[in-house]
Design goal:
Oligomer: heterodimer
Largest interface: A-B, 72 and 69 residues
Distance between the termini of chain B: 52 Å
Structural class of chain A: mainly alpha
Number of helices of chain A: 11
Order of helices and strands of chain A: HHHHHHHHHHH
Radius of gyration of chain B: 19 Å
Number of strands of chain A: 0
Helix content of chain A: over 70%
Largest sheet of chain B: none
Shape of chain B: elongated
Number of domains of chain B: 1
Order of helices and strands of chain B: HHHH
Structural class of chain B: mainly alpha
Radius of gyration of chain A: 18 Å
Number of helices of chain B: 4
Strand content of chain B: under 5%
Helix content of chain B: over 70%
């Protein structure tokens, strides 16, 4: 029972800090479950996938109601992230746990580096892509009816094919590591497809549900999701994320980003040790 | 007039429907998981205990007997099936609005998810 309460508290902390720092819950939850509760990496990924679906759905409804998320663009891209998630969910059960731990270690290092970057150059915080750039839209710009449907009122979608490939990559990463995929999809939409940042962020959040549920169903049916571990973690992350979204505009996250960059780097070191079989 | 940066076209009612499906499914799922967690605490079960595997036929009996696993499994299932349900809602909306391309996209997403279910039930 004490472990259950500890897991709820850990979930609250990961949901809260994940929300404040703009990280998906999975980046913090998988190491917590693996290093803190000694769950196998694959089982931690299964738990994390359920948690990211819950947290993303809660905010996706807000983005949809406010008209920020682009439903059509999200649905076309999530076809490709779902294909990636299907591939990733299937190969996750063929890969060695230590390989997954090593991959996660690299993800943590990458996340730590992005948190240390000046905010203006961070893909998740950089100024908006040029909008209303219809005049300089060359052959790479989508000119199909579907492309028109996916474009916004003040922006036209570019580079749909590289965007689709990025979606497959994001889906594979999500399925292997139990993350939402925003680390991949926000830069793909914003930088490659020239979608304004706030639309890219909202649309990426909307897409997480289908991406994660595709691989989570594979995990579930292969016995990779444990309800006893999932329940307390999911409740904790849900409560923590709700708290974080209410506190976000009142908290100066500058120092918090530095602190978490250090924590993520140390966690990457621990995951690397696990990958190398060093106890 | 659509605000700058948002979706163009007459899609708002469909987005409201998709949002409602997401809200209902997610909050119902999290409520069931919360009941399961309370029952875990009452039963003194640890998250590290071995949980019974998913057996759809046993769920009603487990829930009637107030076993935590029944509520937890149903909650998890609801959470996992909510995103496909909102794709289905969008598919119906696109078919009604005669948006053939988007209807095909929605259908293909459901096919990929179905392939995932197939992949999960084979070769394990």
């Amino acid at each position: 029972m004490e472990i259950g309460l500890l897991l709820i508290a850990g979930g609250v902390a990961t949901g809260l800090f994940g929300s404040l720092l703009g990280l998906g819950g999975g980046v913090l939850l998988v190491p917590l479950l693996t290093l803190g509760f000694d769950l196998p990496v694959r089982e931690a990924v299964g738990v994390s996938l359920v948690c990211v679906i819950i947290t993303s759905a809660a905010s996706a409804t807000v983005f949809l109601d406010r008209g920020v998320a682009n439903l059509r663009l999200g649905m076309v891209l999530e076809l490709f992230t779902a294909i990636g998630a299907l591939i990733g969910g299937t190969i996750a059960f063929l890969l060695d746990e230590r390989f997954l731990a090593g991959l996660f270690s690299l993800l943590l290092l990458y996340t730590a580096v992005t948190m240390l970057r000046p905010r203006g150059t961070d893909a998740a915080t950089e100024p908006e892509a040029p909008e209303a750039d219809l005049a300089d839209a060359p052959a790479q710009t989508s000119r199909t009816r579907l492309g028109d449907a996916m474009s916004g009122a003040s922006y036209r979608l570019r580079n749909p094919i590289p965007g689709a490939f990025g979606g497959v990559g994001g889906g594979v990463m999500s399925a292997l590591l139990g993350i939402g995929g925003g680390l991949v999809m926000v830069p793909v939409m914003h930088v490659v497809m020239r979608v304004p940042l706030r639309v890219a962020t909202a649309t990426s959040n909307f897409m997480i549900g289908v991406t994660a549920s595709t691989s989570a169903l594979v995990y579930l049916l292969k016995g990779g999701i444990d309800p006893y571990a999932t329940g307390p973690a999911a409740i904790g992350v849900f409560v923590g994320a709700a708290m974080g979204s209410r506190m976000a505009h009142r908290v100066d996250v500058g120092m918090l980003r530095l602190l978490f960059a250090a924590v993520l780097t140390y966690t990457a070191f621990l995951m690397a040790r696990r990958a190398l079989g060093v106890q | 007039m659509t605000p700058a940066g948002t979706t163009r076209g007459p899609g708002r009612p469909l987005e409201a429907t998709v949002s409602t499906v997401l809200k209902v499914g997610t909050y119902a799922g999290i409520a069931l998981v919360a009941v399961g967690v309370v029952l875990m605490v009452v039963d003194g079960r640890s998250p590290l205990d071995v949980a019974p595997s998913l057996d759809l036929g046993r769920l009603p009996a487990d829930m009637a007997a107030l076993h935590p696993s029944g509520f937890l499994w149903l909650g998890v299932l609801l959470v996992l099936t909510t995103p496909p349900a909102r794709v289905l809602a969008a598919l119906i909306g696109y078919l009604r609005g005669r948006e053939r391309e988007m209807a095909i996209v929605a259908l293909l997403i459901l096919v990929v998810i179905a392939l995932g279910v197939f992949a999960g039930t084979t070769g394990s």
